Amino acid sequence: MSAQGTPKADGMAAGRTTRTPVETPKGAWTITFLLFLFMLVNFADKIVVGLAGVPIMTDLKLQPDQFGLLGSSFFFLFSISAIVVGFIVNKVSTRWVLLTLAVIWALAQFPMVGTVSFTTLLICRIVLGAGEGPAFSVAAHAIYKWFPDEKRTLPTAILSQGSAFGVVLAVPALNWIIVNHSWHYAFGALGVVGLIWVAAWLALGKEGPLEDTQTLAATETKIPYVQLLTSRTFLGCVIATFGAYWALSLGLTWFTPFIVKGLGFSQSEAGFISILPWVFGATIVILTGWISQVMMARGYTTRIARGVLGSVPLIIGGLILASMPHVQGTGLQIALLVVGSGLCGAIYVVCPPMLGEFTPASQRGAIIAIYGALYTLSGIIAPSVMGTVIQRAGSMLDGYMTGFTINAVVMVGSGVIGLLLLWPNTEKARLLRGVAPQANTLKGAVSPT
């Protein structure tokens, strides 16, 4: 009988595979919600400088290139901190690491409540970036201790949406404080909110029961970090998310100033318009997480349900953004910017689960952290590039359009590379082929049988 007629062959031909379901522990969704709030605070902290960009530039008499430097400064220690903490959570409970990070965020906000210089603001943003660098990777590592692999995409999507809701909920409130009081008080409000989360996590935060960090560190087969970090799926995730984060970091720093100074809206109007990319992005992220998990349940390989599903929207988003300088009307330009940049969100949902597929659990914290550290390097580059382009352009609007065109090229290029490299379903077997012979050789050296 031909193999083509068997159900197994049909499933494999369609890019599907069979998985045995594992039960989700009680309390998993409570932890997911707390970590969703964790990321909500995280992104509210990030967005405040961009939201208050025009008042800050006015009060401190900053040029566009200086404000670009301020936006980039947040990422100066972001990657280094992410890597260091990533190795720490391989062996230390994520509960206490998350608590420490949140305390740093809160304390970094309070110096801005009073009169500050550009240097003080710069230093506080660098410290905040050091505290926030490991945030998503540690939170994802913590969640994966509560969910089996086939059920991780949706929790990852919810975790990612802390960023969107952080902006959607925080922007109106923070903008009201900025307009009616002062941008200084907006920072203080974020510090108070951060301390409230710390109290909630102390009361309710727990370590996931599916994985014991110390036991796994002692018993699990390790894959050399060089092999993990040079695997095609790891490289594909870094490059694809680098392009997505280029767009995100521009949104954090330059979206509101573009609305006010580039398109002529008031600060009050810009506060509401600034929500739009995050609302659309939240929809894309949740939809991607749901579609991916449905595809996984129906037996599609993770190459399709995660790799392709995450890369294609990045390419489409870049093409949409590339058309922005060639259309007329502020409404249409804003719509293209919102849709083009919002489609990037799909890649954030699928990459951490893909890395978790082939990385041993005892090494996963470090690998996801290094991944985060590398792709967020675009956060250093993108705001500064935009500031320099605006500074040198014939007009401010031309400068913004050139900066968004550069963003589009980066998105399309990174999406195409991701599409070519993301093959997580075959990565683990390939990596373990080189590890197994080494283990057998060592066993033979110590045992006569």
Q: What keyword list fits this structure?
A:
disordered C terminus; disordered N terminus; 449 residues; single chain; mainly alpha
How is this structure best described in words?
Helix 2 runs antiparallel to helix 10. The chain contains 22 helices and no strands. By secondary structure, the protein is mostly helical.
Q: Can you give the helix content as a percent range?
A: over 70%
- Strand-residue fraction? under 5%
SS summary, helix count: 22
- The structure class reads mainly alpha
What integer value in Å does the Rg equal? 22 Å
Mind describing the biggest β-sheet?
Answer: none
What's the rounded overall pLDDT mean? 84
H-E string:
HHHHHHHHHHHHHHHHHHHHHH
Compact overview of the structure:
The protein has 449 residues and is mostly helical. Helices cover 78% and strands 0% of the residues. Residues 1-14 and 438-449 have low confidence and may be disordered.
Any chance you could write out the topology, listing elements then pairs?
Layout: H1 7-13, H2 28-51, H3 53-60, H4 64-73, H5 78-88, H6 94-109, H7 118-132, H8 135-143, H9 153-180, H10 183-204, H11 213-219, H12 225-229, H13 232-262, H14 267-273, H15 276-297, H16 302-322, H17 330-342, H18 345-358, H19 361-375, H20 378-392, H21 396-421, H22 424-446
Helix pairs in contact: 2-8, 2-9, 2-10, 2-13, 4-20, 5-7, 5-19, 6-7, 6-8, 6-10, 8-9, 8-19, 9-10, 9-14, 9-15, 9-18, 13-14, 13-18, 13-19, 13-20, 13-21, 15-16, 15-17, 15-18, 16-17, 16-18, 16-21, 18-22, 20-21
